[in-house]
Amino acid sequence: MPSSPTRPSGYGSTPLSPHRTSASAPSLFRRLLAPFRIRASPPSHDRPHERQPLIPSQHVHALRESWKGLKSLLKFIGPGYMVAIGYLDPGNWATDLAAGSQFNYSLLIVILVSNFMAVLLQSLCIRLGVVTGMDLASACRKRFSFPVTLFFYILCELAIMACDLAEVIGSAIALNILFSIPLPVGILITALDVLVILAAWRTEHMQWFEAAIIVLVAAVAGCFGYLVALSRPDWGLVAAGFMPSWEIWTKPGSLYVAMGILGATVMPHNLYLHSHLVRYRSSRDSDALGEIREVEASPEPDEHTDGDKVGLQPLCRAAIIRKTLHLTNIDSTVALTFALAINASILIVSAASFYKNNEKDVADLQDAFHLITKFLGPVAGTAFGVALLISGQSSTITGTMTGQIIMEGFLGSHFRVSPWARRLITRLLAIVPAMVVTLWKGSAGINQLLIASQVVLSLQLPFAVWPLVVFTNSKSMMRVQYSSDDGDVETAVAEESFQNSPLMSVASIAIAVIITALNLGLIYQVFSGNAAGTSSGQAFA
Prior knowledge:
18 helices, disordered C terminus, three-stranded mixed β-sheet, mainly alpha
């Protein structure tokens, strides 16, 4: 038997397997395929050209950060829409309808500029509420003497009553045109259902209220999107309407209506409301971004201390305050952009339906409903009525809340009543004059009451804007001192100023001057009789 083959010298004496004797061909084949062989990859730390994943790691990190930022933003969505619904109350409807029917699309620029002013003023409200922990009414109480504060409170209460009055009347008119409910009964229904809704108000339910308001804003936008599509406006003229034009100054009555749009857009009660709502998400006791907590009562002014002193905050809140300001301003700007789109849509529908058909004297909301039904059909008329009802009801809810806020803020411990009593007082202040005038003069008296309510709003607006501008331009009021919280003694270790920037200061003062001048001009025209010859629809300003 032949012996097993052995390795050549130098390879050791281990015999080769008998089965490898014929392996020369496969070995040759493997050597031929060697250049094309797929080799096992070396460990990741050894291979310089690792195959990249489908999504690079830096993109994954960016996506995660974006998702984290979106979740943070969602925590702050809500207060802006609670404020935006106030920019859609029946007073705004009346001025927008009058502007479109009288001057076609030329006053769209006024709506745009008014909205820019509103965005800036609401940003000042956010700054005041988040930084100082006080709403505008509480800041007035802390900064001014009690007689001055009481004077401001009386003016503000008149403005809230006027605003609430317009909203109650608008809702009653909507119930009348939709269901033929008499105006007095509609006023009672509007007042009572708001009280029932607000009876469920709790801090833990706040996001549900905000979500409901967002849905209502979307519903109004949907109704007017449908009406705009039906009315088929001239989009070239619409675009031109957003451009500045001398027609505002040269056309008779145009400036009057423009001032009415401004007065109806920049609502004083929204300044008090927004500065209060942002406090729920900026509690000093919270170190979590966007956490909703009960609003603590503002401390009473101490005559032995600096009235501007706000107090120390934990150092961990420095980044939270800056982030809260940023995200809350995004919420406000987006929400007010929706309000701008809806107000512009009201004017566009009015111009495309009324002005185009030579109906240039739209006297009131009921006339507008009948004309829309005539030109665009009964479904369009129903959409108009539904949108009016939604905007009137939702803005009435926020108006009643504002009445409660200013009573607490201005009077503080000098006037303590239960929340239910405050809401009832606010409701009665709007119901009683509306009911008396309705029973006495009917729908014509309602229109005159709406005119008076908007004039009262114009009277009070400067008294809300100027304190807001002064407070946010104050270095001492807008300064935050941070403590290290070492032991039981808090020591200030850092401070940060949130005072308005020079550009913001100039812009806010300019807006306050413009608003004051235009509203004084409006009031002068109303009381001097220079508004004669304008339609009652124009006088809704």
